[in-house]
UniProtKB/TrEMBL annotation:
Name of this protein: Uncharacterized protein
Record-linked SUPFAM superfamilies: alpha-D-mannose-specific plant lectins
Alphabetized UniProt keyword annotations: Disulfide bond, Hemagglutinin, Lectin, Mannose-binding, Repeat, Signal
CDD domains per UniProt: B_lectin, PAN_AP_plant
Record domain Bulb-type lectin: where: 29-151
InterPro entries per UniProt: Bulb-type_lectin_dom, Bulb-type_lectin_dom_sf, Pan_app, S_locus_glycoprot_dom, SLSG/EP1
Organism of origin: Spirodela intermedia (Intermediate duckweed)
Length: 415
C-alpha cells in the first residue's frame, strides 16, 4: 500500500466540519443525511477519531478516491475505497444521497462514479455514518440498509480483495475469504487458483496457524449466528489496533499499532516457506527447518525420484506397501502437523475420536482420520479418502493425524 499523509487543508477543513456539526441538525462529524453532502476537502471522522472518510489520491495526483483510512500516525493507511474502478479526475467530487435514496459519488459534471445500488426509495430518513469500527453504514430508523464491510477491500474489514497496484485500488487478482463447506477455513486465491490456506478451524485456531496467537495479541473465534458464520479477531485488553492487509503481490500482512513508536508494525506475513498450497504433493510433509523442505511420510517414497532430485516435489509420494483393507491395516499417529486439506474429507459431528477410528477402519477407501475440534469434550470426526495433501510439520501447536498403514505396529512418529 502507498504511504498517504493528510494535507494541512484536509486537516483544517476536517476541523471546521467538527465545529460546524453542533450548529447543523442535518449534518454530523461522523455522518450525512438526505439533506446534506460531503465535498472534496472535507472529511467525516468516526466518533472516537480512529477512522476518517474523505477524498484522497493514492499516489497519482490526478486521480482521487473516496476512502476510509486509519486516522493515526503519519502513514494513515487506507482500509476501504468506494470508487475503486472509477477514480475522480481532479479535485472535485461530492458524496450525497440521490433522489432514489442511494448514496452516490458524483464528479463535477454530475456523473455517478459510485453508488450503493440499493432498491429505490423516496421515503424514509436515511443516514450514512462512519462507525468507530471503520464500517460506513446507511441506516433508516435503526435498520441497516448497507455497509462498507459488505464491499471488500484489501484490508480485513472483514474480507479482502487485493489492489491491482500500490497506487491503483481497482480489484487485483488475489482474494482472501472465509469458506464454510465442511469446516470453516480461510483461502487465499489467485483468481480461482488456491494459493494458501491456514487449514480448518479446530475450535481453537486454524490447524495450519500454530503461531497465529503465540504473541497473545488476539482472541480468535469462528462464530455461527443463525444463517451467518464469521471469523473474528478481537484485540486482547492492553493491545491497540490491528489490521490485516492483502498486498498486490498476494501476501497477507498482519499489522499492529504501536503507541510508543507512533507507527504500524508488521507482526507476520504469509505465505512463507512451506505455506504454498500443495508444494510437497500427496503423502509428503513440509518442514521449514529441513532442506529440502519436502519429505515423504514414513512408509512412502517419491512418486518420481528424478523430479524429487530436481526440487520439484509437487508429484508427492506413494506407498511402499499397498493397503490390504484387512486386519493387518492399522493407524499410525503422525504428530504435530497441519491436517490435510479437506477437499476429499468427510466431517461428522457428535462423534468421539474412538468412533471416528472405527468409521475409518470400516471403509477401505479411508486413508486417515483426525479430530475437527480439539477443545475439551470436542466431538468432530474428520475422515479422508484418497490422497492427503498440504501437510506441514510444526514444533508446537500442531495436531495429530492418524494415518492408515499396512503395518499397524510401526509406532508413533514425527513425519
Amino acid at each position: 500500500m502507498g504511504k498517504h499523509t493528510a494535507t494541512p487543508a484536509i486537516l483544517f477543513f476536517g476541523f471546521l466540519l467538527v465545529i460546524g456539526a453542533s450548529s447543523s441538525p442535518s449534518f454530523s462529524a461522523d455522518g450525512i443525511d438526505q439533506k446534506s453532502s460531503l465535498r472534496a476537502g472535507l472529511s467525516l471522522f468516526s466518533s472516537g477519531g480512529s477512522f476518517q472518510l474523505g477524498f484522497f489520491n493514492l499516489g497519482v495526483p490526478a486521480k482521487r478516491y473516496l476512502c476510509i483510512r486509519f486516522n493515526r500516525g503519519n502513514e494513515k493507511p487506507v482500509v476501504w475505497v468506494a470508487n475503486r474502478d472509477s477514480p475522480l479526475n481532479g479535485s472535485d467530487g461530492i458524496l450525497r444521497f440521490g433522489g432514489d435514496g442511494n448514496l452516490v459519488l458524483v464528479d463535477k459534471a454530475g456523473n455517478i462514479a459510485w453508488s450503493t445500488n440499493l432498491n429505490s426509495s423516496t421515503g424514509g430518513n436515511r443516514v450514512a455514518r462512519l462507525l468507530e469500527t471503520g464500517n460506513f453504514v446507511i441506516h433508516d430508523a435503526g435498520r441497516v440498509l448497507w455497509e462498507s464491510f459488505d464491499e471488500p477491500g484489501d484490508t480485513l474489514l472483514p474480507h479482502l480483495t487485493s489492489w491491482k497496484a500500490n497506487d491503483d485500488p481497482s480489484p487485483g487478482k488475489y482474494s482472501y475469504r472465509l469458506v464454510v463447506e465442511k469446516l470453516p477455513t480461510c483461502v487465499l486465491l489467485e483468481g480461482s487458483k488456491l494459493k494458501f490456506t491456514p487449514g480448518m478451524w479446530n475450535g481453537v485456531r486454524f490447524t495450519g496457524s500454530p503461531f497465529h496467537n503465540a504473541n497473545n495479541f488476539f482472541n480468535s473465534s469462528v462464530v455461527s449466528s443463525g444463517d451467518e458464520v464469521y471469523y473474528s479477531d478481537s484485540l486482547i485488553a492492553g493491545t491497540s489496533s490491528s489490521r490485516l492487509v492483502l498486498t498486490p503481490t498476494g501476501e497477507l500482512k498482519r499489522y499492529a499499532w504501536s503507541d510508543e513508536g507512533d507507527s504500524w508494525t508488521v507482526l507476520w506475513t504469509v505465505p512463507w516457506e512451506c505455506q504454498d498450497y500443495g508444494q510437497c504433493g500427496p503423502y509428503s510433509t513440509c518442514t521449514v527447518s529441513d532442506y529440502p523442505h519436502c519429505r515423504c511420510l514414513r512408509g512412502f517414497r517419491p512418486k518420481s525420484q528424478e523430479d524429487w532430485f530436481q526440487g520439484n516435489c509437487t508429484g508427492g509420494c506413494v506407498r511402499n506397501t499397498a493397503l490390504r483393507c484387512g486386519a493387518s491395516d492399522g493407524f499410525r499417529p503422525v504428530v504435530s502437523v497441519k491436517l490435510p486439506e479437506l477437499l476429499n474429507a468427510t466431517v461428522t459431528t457428535n462423534m468421539s475420536l474412538e468412533d471416528c477410528r472405527a468409521r475409518c477402519a470400516n471403509s477401505c477407501n479411508c486413508t486417515a482420520y483426525g479430530s475437527g475440534d480439539i477443545r475439551q469434550g470436542g466431538r468432530v470426526c474428520v475422515t479422508w479418502e484418497g490422497d492427503l495433501v498440504d501437510i506441514v510439520n510444526f514444533t508446537f501447536n500442531g495436531q495429530e493425524l492418524f494415518l492408515r498403514v499396512a503395518d499397524a505396529n510401526s509406532g508413533t512418529y514425527f513425519s
